Structures are given as structure tokens and as C-alpha cells.
Amino acid sequence: DGGITQSPKYLFRKEGQNVTLSCEQNLNHDAMYWYRQDPGQGLRLIYYSQIVNDFQKGDIAEGYSVSREKKESFPLTVTSAQKNPTAFYLCASSIQASQPQHFGDGTRLSIL
Amino acid sequence: QQQVKQSPQSLIVQKGGIPIINCAYENTAFDYFPWYQQFPGKGPALLIAIRPDVSEKKEGRFTISFNKSAKQFSLHIMDSQPGDSATYFCAASSGSNYQLIWGAGTKLIIKP
């Protein structure tokens, strides 16, 4: 079954701690994206990557970091610099940038 | 100019009714308008999309109407069912830009 797998489903962060959210896709898509979703708001783009070893900041990149060392993987690190990290994080991929995006089932991050 | 304004924020319709969700945009460079459906705890799933060369597109019970001159597009759900209860998001992008601009979402409840 082709798709996007995000893990873990739930994650808790202590103050001053960095945490990493996993996103893996087996769709052979070139482009991958990370979004943040807060209640009552649309999705906001954190980072995107159009190709391996390349990524660009989205609208709300501060306090986050990513890497794209493999085509199928695009992990997101929420650093201690992100002061309000509680949100639902969604990973997406598309064949190429500007093509329809397909989403994983998200990771819900909370602060302990 | 990058915003997509979605309304209403929430909507309750009786089974069999036709809920209508509206979106408006300012950027005339937008040329791709998808609608996504999201169930609680899941990622959004692409429902239907339209490009501005057509005024209407149907897929099953879902129809997008597009008014280029008014810079508005809407989603109609025919013969709505309780299983259609979800949050619906409109979005827009331009061919020259990978980035999807999202509406704030509409929480739809279909009453049995």
C-alpha cells in the first residue's frame, strides 16, 4: 500500500527539549511538505522540499528544522526555540511541486 | 493578496440537503483550486479540484462552481449524508509557485 506514514501519532515535549517528527513516503514523490494546523485555522506551511538535499522555508519556519537526505524521508525537528509548539503537524508529498498534495495522518504534539 | 477567505466557519444541514461552502481570493495568478476533506484525527484528503478554464466540475456528489470574474469558487454536496460530516478546506495556488494557500476551513455537520 502506497502512502505517507507519520510517527508518532502523539508526542509530548518537555520545556527546553527538541523533538523530531518522522515522515516517510513510498509514493516515489519528489516534493514533500510540513504543515502546522491549529484549531479554527487553515494549514500553514513550515518547510518544503522539492528534491533530495534541498529544502526551503515556508511561512512559519522559525523554531523548526528539517533535513532531506533521502527521497522517501523528510523529518521535522521542533526545537526549544519554538515557544508555542502545541499543534497538529501534517506531512504531505506530491509528484512534483504544484501537483496535488497527499497527506499523512498527522502527529499531535503537546507540551508537558 | 495571498489570502483565501472561506465561509461559513460551520454549517449544519439535514440529510439530503445541499451544503454550499464558499471561497474568495484576490490573487489573479491563482490557477489551481482544490478542495480537501478532513476527518478528526486524520490528514486532509483531496476531494476535487478545478482550474479556471472551466466554470463547473462534478465528481460524484461533489461539484465545484467557479466564477473567475468574481474571484470566487464554491463546493456543493448533493444528497448529503451523515458520513459527509467533516471539515472542508479550499485552497489555491499558481503554476509558478508550489505553495498552496489555504482557507480557514468549514466544519460541516449533516444531521440524520
Mean pLDDT of chain A: 93
Care to count the β-strands of chain A?
Answer: 11
The oligomeric state is heterodimer
Distance between the termini of chain A: 35 Å
Order of helices and strands of chain B: EEEEEEEEEEE
Q: Low-confidence segments of chain B, ≥5 residues, pLDDT <50?
A: none
One letter per element, helices H and strands E, the order of chain A comes to: EEEEEEEEEEE
Percent strand of chain B equals over 45%
Global outline of chain A: globular
* Content-based structural category of chain B: mainly beta
Helix content of chain A: under 10%
Number of strands of chain B: 11
Q: List the total number of helices of chain A.
A: 0
Strand content of chain A: over 45%
Task: Give the biggest beta sheet of chain B.
Answer: 6 strands, mixed
Shape of chain B: globular
Measured between the Cα atoms of the first and last residue of chain B, the distance is 39 Å
Largest interface: A-B, 23 and 24 residues
What is the CA-based Rg of chain B, rounded?
Answer: 13 Å
Uncertain segments of chain A: none
Give an overview of the whole structure.
The complex is a heterodimer of chains A (112) and B (112). With 112 residues, chain A is mainly beta. Chain A is built from no helices and eleven strands. Chain A has strands at 4-7, 10-13, 19-25, 31-37, 44-51, 54-57, 64-66, 76-78, 87-94, 102-103, 107-111. In chain A, the strands form two sheets. In chain A, strands 2, 4, 5, 6, 9, 10 and 11 form a seven-stranded mixed β-sheet that branches. In chain A, strands 1-3-8-7 form a four-stranded antiparallel β-sheet, with no helix packed on it. In chain A, a hairpin with a 6-residue loop joins strand 4 and strand 5 (44-51). With 112 residues, chain B is an all-beta fold. Helix content of chain B is 0%, strand content 52%. Chain B has no helices and eleven strands. In chain B, the strands form two sheets. In chain B, strands 2, 4, 5, 9, 10 and 11 form a six-stranded mixed β-sheet that branches. In chain B, strand 7 (62-67) and strand 8 form a beta hairpin. The termini of chain B are far apart. The model of chain B has no long low-confidence stretch (mean pLDDT 93). Classes of the chains: A mainly beta (112), B mainly beta (112).
